[in-house]
Amino acid sequence: MALTAQRFTALDVFRGMTVCFMIIVNTPGNGATTFSPLLHAKWHGFTPTDLVFPSFLFAVGNALSFVMNRYRSMPKSQVWGKILKRVFIIFLLGFLMYWFPFVHWEEGRLVGNEFASTRVFGVLQRIALVFGIAALLIYYFDWRRALIISVAGLLLYWVLLLLFGEPGAQLTLHSNAVLKLDNWLIGPKHLYMGEGVPFDPEGLLSTLPAIANVTAGYAAGYFLQKQGKNFEALAKLLLTGCTLLFIAYLWNLAFPINKKLWTSSFVVLTVAIDCIILAMLVYVIDLRRKTNWTYFFEVFGRNPLFIYLLSEVLAILLYFFRTGDQSYYSAIYNAVFAPLGGYLGSFLFAITFMLICWLVGYLLDKRKIYIRV
């Protein structure tokens, strides 16, 4: 059966929601007074914030389901060129974002940021890698085989984490296969230091299970296009989500849900929740026709990578420029939002920051400017 060419508003809204909430959780006014649901789990466990990034990868798979037929009509060399070009550009943007603004303050003077201490892997880099791998898998195989290969990757990742690391401590922050491979490949100075020790939650090895988030998103998008907007399709999508929830929590008993290691049980859990959310969105938007609220999220969904990159660069610049002995980021929070209360002020700062990014997206949308990579 040929896929319908009609776009699903629900898929665009889903993508926009992930960008919206990604900005909110990434830019609290004060991390020490952030509501707990807006924080990542410290290690094992799961919070709503942990759902944001895998949902973006799921949305990448959704979007891929609309272009794959066009890829299949092109010469193979052209397809490889398009995919690899996108992988390279997104990866490079992510790397440059962590290097930016290329200087930092040190004892009142500007000093260059050394390449030797620049983070190599990260959010955009993971998006680039998993998009490229998933796109090629789906292009050369059908989506079912690509999904089977992705599931095999989840099982392989489980084995690798069990085999490597100190005996009995394979899943600790200080001893795991992800950290060992990154240390061997690029060294600790190129890793994320947010935990106080060199460890990258977007490390190279943990990219392997993340591929399944994209292929699952592709399968969901393909399924909805093929089956159409009807209650039977939604029932199947909901049933899939509920089944995967059961599998995830069962797997959690042996292989804990952990976003920072991107464990296989974490992948299954996030795909399950994404299937359920997507089914709910299709029901409300495409079946019930309740669309008076959707435009806000569609703005984010129409320029997702650009708006995300804008949010990160803007936050970096607010931290970089200083007034007195504090950054503009802290000065704005302390002057405007802190008096409203620690937790409330931090949350309202994040909401305001997100709305500023939305306004840029709104102006782009009104001018029909859509920045694609």
Automatic annotation (TrEMBL):
Parts of the chain that traverse the membrane: 12-31, 51-71, 83-100, 120-140, 147-165, 203-224, 236-255, 261-285, 305-322, 342-364
Keyword set, alphabetical order: Membrane, Transmembrane, Transmembrane helix
Transmembrane among keywords: yes
Protein known as: DUF5009 domain-containing protein
